[in-house]
Every structure is written in structure tokens, then in C-alpha cells.
Write the C-alpha cells for this entry.
Amino acid sequence: MSNLLKSIIRPEILALSAYHVPSADGMIKLDAMENPYTLPLILREEISQLAEDAHINRYPDPSATSLKVILRNTLSIPSEMAIMLGNGSDEIIQAIALATAKPEAVLMGVDPGFAMFRIIATFCGMNYVGVPLTANFSLDLDAMLAAISQHRPAVIFLAYPNNPSGNLFDPQAICRIIEATPGIVIVDEAYQAFADATFMDMLTQYPNLLLMRTLSKLGLAGLRLGLLVGRPEWLAQLEKLRLPYNVGIMTQLIAERIFQHYDILLEQAAAIKAERTILRARLATMEGVEVFPSDANFILFRLNEASRIFQELQQYGILIKNLDGTHPLLKNCLRVTVGTSDENTQFCKTLRRILDKPLQLA
Ligand code: PMP
């Protein structure tokens, strides 16, 4: 590494590994919690028409007013709460970290949790503190409360359901954390569509609670749209960090049109939940496979030699996520996104084939 580079780039950035996205060319892609279904042809045709008519020579509406109206109605956002939009919810996490990154400020999460909380905290100059979950991936409330009084975090992020474990934390434990912390709590509901649980109605109760959603897991990952819901006084400050035209005109137009047919997204989410039940049951019948409960569109499971099995799956053209070695609680754990019925069958067949194969001894 050149001396110039070392002298210019901040040491915490030099030490950081970039968020790695593996190539999935030609593979069955079950690694990134995407919705596997396409939209109905008629809706895709409407989107083509929108593209044809869009004034892409103009900047988009910087406050995305009409998109926010439809989001508010379809997602039952309380009228007293404001909405901020991001280029994916990752960008919202970044705005929150930038706004709160006083010297020595702490951003707290749970481990294992969503990797971007730590990465964004680090590159925004915050100290990240990850509080370990219990062995079955529940919140360790005593450890959280102790860490809160020790570190006085400015911000706590809790994904509900959690990624990569897939479970919902005890809502009462989350309330205790919101009550105990001197800072704000962001409940990240990226996987809410698969969970039947939400903190949306708690927003009015807690002045230090904010709620984040994304359209990525609902079938619109390529559009890049995330939203933060909270009291106008908080969002007015965070809005100052949002770059003026962060949500492009095509994202606004397409998201607005698709949300006029929100039932389609909900039907797809229901289909994914049904597939999740089948996939979990199939995994549970495989010898040596421990399957964890999921309220999300992915399933965490543990088996011997997870890293070798991950690689073999890859050789057979199936890409899932290897979590082995990323955290002690995730030893020998893999995470598979729920795909179409065919993709899930293909994945299960291949996994069974690998597990049944006698080991080739050299
Ligand atoms: N929160 C959680 C818990 C996630 O798992 C993800 C995506 N993996 C995100 C936020 C970010 O989603 P996006 O930026 O696509 O909105």
C-alpha cells in the first residue's frame, strides 16, 4: 500500500472490508433475500409506458410528495409521523449515523446482526458496539441493558425480524430497551412483510423510537427505496443529510404505480411465506441439519462442514450465504433465501445429494 494512500485515507477505512457481493451469473440466486417473482405482464407494460413518458431531463421531485401519500396510506403510517425516503434503507442508516456521529458516539446493534450497521457506523466515525444474542438468537436483555448503561449509545438499531437469524425478538424486551436507552432506537422492519408484527403503532408512544422499512424484500430491490418513519422533529434534522435528489424519477414513478397494486406484492409475500413453510419442513427432515425458526423470507440452518457444503452448492450452480466464521454463534451456519417453488426444490435436491454422497477420501 502506498504511503500517500496510507497518509490520506482514515485508518478505520483502511481497516474496513468492503461489503462483498459475490457474482451470481447463471446461478440459482438464493443469497440476498430478494423476492423471486416478477410482476404481472400488465403491470410491467404500465411501467414501460411510465418510462416512455417520464421527463428524465428534469430533476425528480425532491420530496417525492405523491409517492409518500401512497406509501402512507398503504403502509398505515400514522398521520402525526413524518416519512423520509432513502436510496434503499442503507442510505437511511447512513444519514442517521452521520447525524449522530459526535466524537466517541456509540452506535449499538446486536451480534449477529445486519452487517451494514457496523460498517456504516465505522465509516461515519462512530464506535460500533455489538451485544451478543443468546445461543438461540434471542435478545439478551440483561446484557443489552448493561451495555446501554456502560456505553450510553446515541443510536440502537434492532432488525425485527433479525438478519441473519430470521427471528422476531421479544417485543417487550425491545420496549424495555427503548425505555432504558438515553438515545434513539431504530426498529428496522426490512422483513416485516413476512412477519405479521410491527412497531408502527408504538411510534406515538415512544418519542425516541423510529421505524425503518424497505421495498427491497417486497420485490423491488432493484428500485432502491427505503423509508424512515418518525416524529417530524427528528426527521427534519435527518432530512438535512439527505442528498437533494436521492430518489430518482423512475424509482418514484414505478414505486408509486406498483403501490397502486399493493395487493400483488402482498400476494407474493404470502406465496413466499407458504414456500418458507415447505422449505423449513424439508430442511428439517435432512439428517444433521438444524433449522432455526424464521419470520423472514430466508432460513438459517446449521450443519457439519457448512463451508464445504456451501462451496459444493456453488459448484452445482446454487448460491446461498455462508455465515460460518462470521460470528461464533453462527458456526457452521448457512442462510438460504426462500425462492420459487422450483428453486427451493432444486436447492433441497442438491443439498440432499451432497449430504448423501460418501466422502471422497484422498
Ligand atoms: N436492513 C436489514 C435488516 C437488511 O437485511 C437489509 C438488506 N439486506 C437492509 C436493511 C438494507 O436494505 P436496502 O438498502 O435494500 O433497503
Summary: The two ends are 40 Å apart (CA to CA). Residues 33, 88-90, 114, 159, 163, 188, 190, 214, 216, 221, 226 surround 4'-deoxy-4'-aminopyridoxal-5'-phosphate (CB under 6 Å). The chain has a mean pLDDT of 96. The CA atoms of residues 318 and 347 lie 7 Å apart.
